[in-house]
Amino acid sequence: MRTLLIIANWKLNGNWSFNEAYASAFSSGLKDVDVTGRQIVICPPSIYLQQLNALILNQDIYFGGQDLSDETAGAFTGEISGVMLKEFGCRYVLVGHSERRVRHQESNEIVVRKALNAISAGLIPVICVGETLEQRQSQQMHEVLSSQLDAILQGLGEQVEQVVLAYEPIWAIGTGQTASAEQAQEVHSWLRERVGKKSHSMAQNLQIIYGGSVKSDNTKQLLNMPDIDGLLVGGSSLVVSEFLSICQVNEGI
Ligand code: PGA
Predict the structure, then answer these.
(1) Beta partners for 24?
(2) The predicted structure's pLDDT at residue 252
(3) HEC string for 14-30
(4) CATH says 4-248 is which class?
(5) 126 C-alpha vs ligand 1 centroid, how far in Å?
(6) Taking the domains of the chain in order of start, what are their residue ranges?
(7) 60 pLDDT exceeds 60?
(8) How far apart are CA 78 and CA 95, in angstroms?
(9) Whose CA is nearest to atom 3 of ligand 1?
(10) Which of 7, 129, 136, 212 could make an SS bond with 41 (beta carbons 3.0 to 4.6 A apart)?
């Protein structure tokens, strides 16, 4: 059985007072949410990890970074290492989000280096893959996803057992245009099959989560799909009531 994983990706949002209000409303709302069988993770901007860690004391809530360096230490201005994130209470770290692949020209090689650094720091990398609308419409989706996934499979080898995969179609991120549960399921099962060519048990154990305009009203359909093991939530995770509803939606009809 794969555990359900719900991750909040705050991106470049939050500030000291917003975080205080969020943490207080989230902590009290969480008392009414049954989180059995699922892990909930918050990825704020890393500078606020310590503040939120001190404010959200619930042991069912984990923290994650939004990115880490592909280097471990040295003259790399502005970078944050996996070890630093770990020291500040992170269990997870997002790797290769499309906003980083596109804006920061992160290649598949860099994504693999980051994932390896995360694993050696004791973090679980949540590695994002996904296609643009043009790629989907011009039937290049599988080619793009294969090149992203194959780089991960080759670069990480058996360590793929220590990662989470996130399918985030770029056309669905922040657009309000969620992939339908069927569209997402189709890709998730395709990804799992491709991993299965390397190892059946690795594929069966791999958590593959979906991200892209997740809201409380499409959560259930998505989680109902056999190969969707959780959600990566951007915009909706910034609204406490909305994120709490996403966290408590149960799979199954
Ligand atoms: P969104 O972002 O939920 O705002 O579409 C998801 C993500 O980019 O992780």
Answers:
(1) none
(2) 58
(3) CCHHHHHHHHHHHHHHH
(4) alpha beta
(5) 14
(6) 4-248
(7) yes
(8) 17
(9) 234
(10) 7
CA distance 153 to 143: 15
Judge residue 33's burial from the number of C-beta atoms within 10 Å of its C-beta, 0-12 exposed, 13-18 middle, 19 or more buried. middle
- CA distance linking residue 143 with residue 76, whole number of Å: 33
The stretch 180-187 carries a mean pLDDT of: 97
Q: Whose CA is nearest to atom 2 of ligand 1?
A: 234
Q: Give how far Cα 153 sits from Cα of 27, 48, 131, 248, Å.
A: 38, 33, 18, 33
Distance of CA 159 to the CA centre of its chain: 17
Higher pLDDT pick, 94 / 252: 94
Give residue 102 CA to ligand 1 midpoint distance, Å. Answer: 15
142 is catalytic: no
Could you read off the pLDDT of 107-122 as tens digits, one per residue? 999 999 999 999 999 9
pLDDT, one tens digit per residue, over 133-149 is 999 999 999 999 999 99
What's the pTM value of the predicted model, to 2 decimals? 0.97
* Four-CA torsion 52, 58, 59, 63, nearest 10 degrees: -30
Q: Are 183 and 213 in contact (CB under 8 A)?
A: no
Reduced to 3 states (helix: H, G, I; strand: E, B; else coil), residue 1 is coil
